[in-house]
Structures are given as C-alpha cells and as structure tokens.
User: Which sequence fits this backbone?
C-alpha cells in the first residue's frame, strides 16, 4: 500500500467543528517570538548550515498528475517540493533545490521532502514517498548538488520493503506503509540516523548507500523527531495514535549501539520533535493538544507548544504556547527556530519559521485544566491507527466522522468561528 505523509493539506473538507473563542485567539500566533519568514510550502525538518543559515525541507503542494491507488483517483502529484535557505537575520528565503516530488490527497495531506542535514559542508535531504508517479525518485536520502539537482544516496523505501519490522511481518500492525514513513534524520559518526513513523524504526544510512536497522518500536507508537548530545543516547519523540491522548505523547531514550528503548517523559499529545537547547537542556515540540469534542477533529487548532523535558522526573513543562501545527525545532545559541504551519493552507495557514530569542529566559506557562474528551459515540474500526506521523501507511483514524483524519486542515468561516478539518495525515497513514 502507498504511504502518504503530510504534514498534511489540499482540500476536500471532511468535517467541521466549532472552536471556542480561546482556541481561536490562540491560533493567531505563538506566545513568544516573531515570524522570521512566511510563504513556506508545508515546512518540515530544519537544520543550521554553513554561515548560520537555516535550511528547511518543504513538502510542497502536490501537482496536476493524477495518481490512482486502489481505485482512489484523488491523489495529485507534482514537482512542487523544495529545499530553502533562510537568512536568520533578514528572513530572506532562497531556493536551494526545487522541483522535488510532492503528492497531495485531500484526506492524507502532502508528502514530499521531510528533513535536511549536513555532513561537513555537504547538504542532504530526506524524501518521503518518492516512487509512483516518480519511479526515479524513491523514498530515501539524497545529496543536494551545488547546481540544485539531487542524487540518490540510499533507497530507504527499498530497505523497508525488503525488511519490514516485526509488527508488520506478524500482521499485528494493520496500518502499513510498505516503504515506511521516514519523518526526520540526524547525523552521527558520519552516517544518517532516520526515524520512520510508520514502521516505527531507526535506520542507520551510510553515504555509500548501506541501510541497517538500529532498532524498532513495538506497538506502532508513531515515532517522529530524533536528537542526541555528544556520545549519549538518542532521544525520540512519539506522536501516538488517535485519539492522541496526552499519555501517548512520549519521549523515548534509545541506547547506542544497543538500541534499547525506555520512556523518559510523557504527558502531552502529539509530539513531533526533540532537540537539545541552551544549557544542554532537552526540549520537545508538540503538534497540538487533544481536542475535547468526541466526534470532531481529534486535535485542537493553535495549541502547539515547546516543552521543557526534565529527564530526572519525566515531567514536560510548557514554555511557549499557541503554535499552529509545528513540525520541527532547532536552536542556535539562545535562539530557537520553529517550523510552524507544517500543515500549510495558502490564505489560511501560512507555512513559516518563527524565531524566539533569549529562549533560556522564558518562564514556564501555567495552562488551564484540559477537559477529558468523552467517549466517541461512533464505534471505532478495528486495527486502524494514525500513521499506521507526522506519516505512514494504510491505517486511518478510528471513530466516526474523523475516519481518514491525519493532518488537520483549517479554514475559518467569515464569522471566524468554524474550523474545517480535512483528514490529512502528516505522520500518519491512510485507512485500510
């Protein structure tokens, strides 16, 4: 089955929910910082490159090529993905590479370039869901050449097809993307470590194209961001499956080279990234809060957060609130950069980078108690999950009008009170 990542967008609208005034207000912008640049096309992973410039992967907007799968002809593909370079002072954006594969579906969002990383002065990027209709551009790690072209380094999708994780081989996981759903990567000891949110694994990818598996995460937790410090373990963010309960948003510690996994923090829904920042402290990024309406969209608009991670107690502390579907967090000294609007909708949700200076001086935020969502009235489908994040395979959302949900799409009515969500799936999968 095809995997469709997103972070989501395009747009046949699946369901509508009235949002409260406080939610609407928080959707206007984060509680700290200022927008550095807008107009990005579903921004995903970022990195700091030579000269302090910010490089960002943009999943694009799909295109006009009709790509039919299992009788569904709503996939629209095109070469609209790109890699951009942004000046951290002026906010000026420059295209580094464009015309990269991008696929859009009204319920599954946009798949395309997912992350960027440097090895020395050489830029690389992670492509999610290449292949049909772009057979020469498979899911994998690519070298970005000086002239803006790209060269395949490793076909990650082929490795995953040939070596599915145990939950997939056994049939335990029903939400399956045969090529996985690579969401982010980091560089360590001259190799790339890629996190897959569908087949829930960390893969080591060498510049000679060799792909091996460091570990896998049972139970389909939907793994997203990855980071480490020095020679220490990896830390991995977990998005969780629908209904995105706070207890399912976790930070894992992964031993190196053992791959042993332990949970070190939890308590906030839908985590998309982790990153070490000022003072060597660990921070996590939240896509959105779990919504309270039993049959409405599962995540609340404008509730994304930057969270401090206390590794000694497992506590997550809110520091910045009001982000709208953020997908990546990076630091340069005491300045944080967040890719916001990872599910971007032109004229409604702007794909952007927010810059937050003096980050270490930000005081914790006290949040109002969150209502516990009542049980849905619809009967959930068996064996469906979210990514089957932020992107992954064949599984959809469980429960009622949210079937097929993945990446929330937002459109405000003239009165500004109705939020329309199209079941998009950035880190999730499509319904079986």
Assistant:
């Amino acid at each position: 089955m095809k995997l469709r990542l997103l972070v989501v967008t395009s747009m046949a609208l699946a369901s509508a929910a009235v949002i409260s005034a406080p939610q609407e207000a928080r959707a206007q912008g984060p509680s700290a910082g200022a927008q550095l640049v807008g107009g990005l096309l579903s921004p995903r992973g970022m990195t700091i490159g030579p000269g302090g410039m910010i490089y960002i992967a943009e999943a694009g907007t799909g295109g006009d090529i009709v790509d039919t799968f299992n009788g569904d002809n709503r996939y629209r593909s095109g070469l609209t993905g790109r890699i951009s370079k942004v000046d951290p002072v002026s906010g000026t954006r420059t295209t580094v590479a464009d015309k990269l594969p991008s696929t859009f579906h009204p319920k599954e969002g946009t798949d395309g370039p997912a992350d960027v990383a440097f090895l020395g002065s050489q830029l690389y990027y992670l492509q999610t869901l290449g292949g049909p209709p772009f057979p020469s551009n498979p899911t994998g790690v690519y070298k970005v050449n000086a002239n803006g072209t790209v060269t395949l380094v490793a076909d990650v999708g082929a490795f995953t097809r040939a070596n599915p994780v145990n939950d997939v081989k056994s049939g335990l996981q029903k939400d399956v993307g045969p090529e996985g759903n690579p969401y982010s990567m980091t560089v360590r000891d001259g190799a790339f470590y890629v996190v897959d949110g569908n087949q829930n694994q960390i893969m080591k990818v060498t510049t000679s194209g060799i792909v091996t598996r460091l570990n896998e995460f049972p139970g389909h937790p939907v793994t997203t961001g990855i980071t480490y410090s020095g020679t220490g373990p990896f830390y991995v963010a977990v998005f969780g499956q629908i209904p995105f309960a706070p207890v399912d948003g976790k930070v894992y510690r992964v031993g190196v080279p053992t791959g042993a996994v332990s949970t070190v923090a939890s308590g906030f829904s839908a985590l998309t990234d982790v990153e070490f920042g000022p003072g060597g402290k660990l921070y996590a990024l939240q896509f959105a809060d779990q919504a309270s309406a039993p049959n409405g969209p599962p995540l609340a608009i404008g509730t994304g957060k930057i969270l401090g991670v206390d590794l000694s107690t497992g506590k997550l502390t809110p520091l910045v609130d009001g982000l709208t579907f953020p997908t990546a967090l990076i630091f340069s000294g005491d300045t944080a950069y967040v890719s916001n609007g990872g599910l971007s909708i032109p004229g409604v949700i702007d794909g952007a980078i927010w810059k937050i200076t003096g980050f270490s001086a930000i005081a914790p935020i006290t949040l109002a108690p969150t209502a516990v969502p009542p049980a849905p009235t619809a009967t959930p489908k068996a064996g469906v999950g979210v990514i089957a994040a932020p992107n992954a395979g064949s599984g959809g959302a469980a429960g009622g009008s949210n079937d097929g949900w993945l990446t929330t799409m937002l459109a405000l009515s003239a009165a500004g009170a109705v939020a329309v969500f199209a079941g998009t799936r950035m880190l999730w999968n499509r319904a079986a």
